Amino acid sequence: MIVDTSAIIAILRQEPEADTFSHLLNDSPAVRIAAPTALETYLVAGPTRSVDVEEVLGLGIEVVAFTEEHLAVAHHAHMTYGRGSGSPARLNYGDCFSYALAKVTGEPLLFKGDDFVHTDIQSATGT
């Protein structure tokens, strides 16, 4: 399973989806996050909470290097589903990283919100 910033932030902030997301992470044999998505997570959480590398890695999440293949897929995601593309997904810069890792690996994506439901990425929640 690939995890997006939105899911990690929901867990760290104990949002309503936190328990469901935590169970999905714990039940998955492998959980990965793109390196730029990990950075986004630290930056998003930073103003309201001190989040360090050990805390995210302590969730059992493997940080995956972002390659040229990921870059090409992320660019495609932006052109197809990004803000300004006309797609209802309106993926932002950070979303494109999660999209790319999920697309390249073929693994479902754990996320919060309704942006990725308008793409061709499989949701880890089954919705």
TrEMBL record:
Top-level EC class: hydrolase
Stretches that traverse the bilayer: none
Record-linked Pfam families: PIN
Keyword Chaperone included in the entry's annotation: no
Binding site for Mg(2+): 4, 95
Keyword Hydrolase belongs to the record: yes
PIN domain ranges (all copies): 1-120
Top-level taxon of origin: Bacteria
Signal peptide positions (record): none
Annotated keywords: Hydrolase, Magnesium, Metal-binding, Nuclease, Toxin, Toxin-antitoxin system
Cofactor(s) recorded in Swiss-Prot or TrEMBL: Mg(2+)
Annotated GO MF terms: hydrolase activity; magnesium ion binding; RNA nuclease activity; toxin activity
HAMAP family assigned: VapC_Nob1
Function: Toxic component of a toxin-antitoxin (TA) system. An RNase.
Family named by the database record: Belongs to the PINc/VapC protein family.
Protein name stated in the entry: Ribonuclease VapC
Species of provenance: Knoellia remsis
